């Protein structure tokens, strides 16, 4: 191994340097403060859990993303957290056991076995909110509102929001009496946006012509508000749950339009998170990024395995990517202190730091000066007192 090889990071793992690290921390604080004002309590889930707890109710997708290891104390298999949402669902159901609606938020590192094509690399800093205990549209609307407010706080100027509802596909698949294998194949065809493959599978698997036409229509129903009207026509005679899902999407669509200046898009074949979600789903996009910066939806009853089935809805984002939305300038406004052992100087430095000032004290023999450390002032002894003075071109080099 060469010396250069020792410094290589694994694919998908990245480090965060100044000033981006400072930007991330500022944004983390801003988002958690935003969620606090909405009544969300912060939680900090562990970085690893036993697999039978960590992967409960999440389907195979998260299983493939989870790094697995053996607990040396018990011999049981553990997993590094690849998605905080199931952990927060466990905390609501098993650890907190509160009555009524519960609002929780988080911001923590996660680790993924492979890069997520929809949301960045293998070491995101996942930030998000979860609302448990309310099955109504009001809860879904609140979650979408907070997701859009989060993007605004991060500096997003042009947001495109895609809405969908997994219940429509689930209801049609159930009405078609598909086997698990047939349903999985049909799901793949819809996810790939392949009309020919979809048509071939539907004709081979669905005997009811009316249901077959509805499943084929799923691949065509994407666009603006007109999609919801078209869907009501195409799904006339569908199970009542399909009509209910369209009503929910319509209400959410109108609610977003009334509050936000965003571009709205409806996609009834958007099935990302199929094994995980149970109702409405959404994804928020920003120009310049090929994947959603925020995504979420309803995932009822995830806590059932922990003895407490609860309605649930929420969203998550990668703080690293959010922090890249706005240009970051190097921090300025620091005060340079000379390298002297002087009690009055030390007292002045302590006082300034207590006031919130950034003070950088030189070390003996240091060759770099205030300019290299982005200082715009320096401490000088004036009339017997150490005071900050503005840097000039001459003094900035010393």
TrEMBL record:
Keyword Transcription regulation attached? no
Q: Which Gene3D superfamilies match?
A: Bira Bifunctional Protein, Domain 2 (3.30.930.10)
Pathway(s): Amino-acid biosynthesis; L-histidine biosynthesis; L-histidine from 5-phospho-alpha-D-ribose 1-diphosphate: step 1/9
Q: Which GO terms describe its biological process?
A: L-histidine biosynthetic process
NCBIfam families recorded: hisZ_biosyn_reg (TIGR00443), PRK12292.1-1 (NF008935), PRK12421.1 (NF009086)
Q: Which family does it belong to?
A: Belongs to the class-II aminoacyl-tRNA synthetase family. HisZ subfamily.
State what protein this is by name.
Answer: ATP phosphoribosyltransferase regulatory subunit
Per the UniProt record, the source organism is: Halovibrio variabilis
Whichever gene encodes this chain, its name is hisZ
């Amino acid at each position: 191994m060469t010396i250069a090889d020792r410094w290589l990071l694994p694919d998908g793992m990245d480090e965060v340097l100044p000033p981006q690290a400072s930007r991330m921390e500022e944004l983390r604080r801003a988002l958690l403060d935003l969620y606090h004002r909405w009544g969300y309590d912060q939680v900090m889930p562990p970085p690893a859990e036993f697999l039978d707890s960590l992967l409960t109710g999440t389907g195979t997708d998260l299983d493939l993303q989870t790094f697995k290891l053996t607990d040396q104390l018990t011999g049981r298999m553990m997993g590094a957290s690849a998605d905080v949402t199931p952990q927060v669902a466990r905390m609501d159901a098993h650890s907190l056991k509160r009555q009524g609606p519960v609002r929780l938020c988080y911001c923590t590192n996660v680790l993924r076995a492979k890069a997520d094509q929809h949301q960045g690399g293998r070491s995101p800093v996942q930030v998000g909110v979860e609302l448990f205990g309310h099955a109504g549209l009001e809860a879904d609307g609140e979650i979408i509102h907070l997701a859009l407010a989060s993007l605004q706080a991060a500096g997003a100027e042009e947001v495109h929001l895609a809405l969908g509802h997994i219940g429509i596909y689930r209801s049609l698949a159930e009405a078609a009496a598909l086997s698990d294998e047939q349903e999985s194949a049909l799901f793949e065809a819809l996810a790939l946006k392949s009309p020919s493959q979809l048509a071939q599978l539907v004709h081979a698997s669905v005997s009811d012509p009316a249901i077959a036409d509805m499943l084929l229509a799923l691949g065509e129903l994407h666009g603006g508000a007109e999609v919801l009207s078209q869907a009501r026509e195409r799904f006339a005679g569908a199970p009542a749950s399909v009509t209910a899902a369209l009503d929910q999407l319509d209400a959410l669509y109108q609610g977003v339009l009334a509050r936000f200046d965003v571009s709205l898009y409806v996609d009834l074949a958007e099935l990302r998170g199929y094994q995980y979600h149970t109702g409405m789903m959404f994804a928020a996009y920003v120009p310049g990024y090929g994947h959603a910066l925020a995504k979420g939806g309803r995932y009822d009853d995830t806590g059932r395995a922990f003895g407490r089935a609860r309605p649930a809805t929420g969203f998550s984002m990668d703080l690293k990517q959010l922090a890249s939305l706005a240009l970051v300038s190097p921090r300025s406004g620091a005060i340079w202190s000379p390298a002297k052992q002087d009690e009055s100087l030390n007292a002045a430095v302590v006082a300034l730091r207590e006031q919130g000032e950034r003070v950088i004290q030189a070390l003996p023999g240091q060759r770099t000066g205030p300019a290299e450390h982005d200082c715009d002032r320096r401490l000088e002894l004036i009339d017997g007192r150490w005071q900050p003075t503005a840097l000039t071109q001459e003094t900035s080099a010393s």
